[in-house]
Fold this protein.
Amino acid sequence: MATKKLLFVARSLPYKTEASRLALTHAISSQSVEIYLKDGDLVEGTIAFIGDGVMNCLKNQQAMKHYGITSIEGHMKNTLLLDMKVMICKEDLDRFGIKEDALLMDAEDIGGETNAQIVPYSEIQKEMESVDHLLFC
Amino acid sequence: MGKLTIGCFSSLVGSLSLDFSVKLAEAAIKKGHTVDYWMSGNATMLSKKGQKAFKDYSHLAKTVQELLATGKFQITACEACAVARGYHKEDTMEGVQTHSMDWYLASTFDADRVLHIGGD
């Protein structure tokens, strides 16, 4: 019985490429990975948003209205609903002048109990050092 | 010998990142390692059969077939990403599997190293 930890580091802008959406959907897929593993083995996914990637965390995204596709915000909510750890880099938010009230920090409206965390980059660095594998998106 | 899991989002022809990752897989296999290779997003284009070699464009289909023949290489495309682009089972190159994203995460479980190329 073992758990392998993966950290997806999303640094891409939302909608410009598919990368940040794929970071979220791959991280979410850690919830069903057991079907391929031995009993008791797990893969735990965590996601961190850094650089341009913090833009993915803005709330009130209108992707369905403008592009006819689900929003990244919806995937963010799913990660929180699944109690996955979501970290957002404080320094990069400051650089863009983005305040916490502009961000999707919880998924309470769909029954989520976990909040996203705004953390200094040093904490994200610590997380990077603690996981088994890093996946930059 | 070890196991390397490689994941790539970058497209065939449009980006040389896919070429790099396939060449890395080739180098690892030549050294005796095994490789699981995952294609997501635009990288699923590599799974398409009928690719024609032109000298102006990357051509990786032949290398993929050679790697598959070693028995040390598994290559899998994200099914949803492929089907969204119109690449169905009947369009898929021989030997290439399709699965959902959890296949990739499961492959990382016993990988000695994971290399993920998550850009375009």
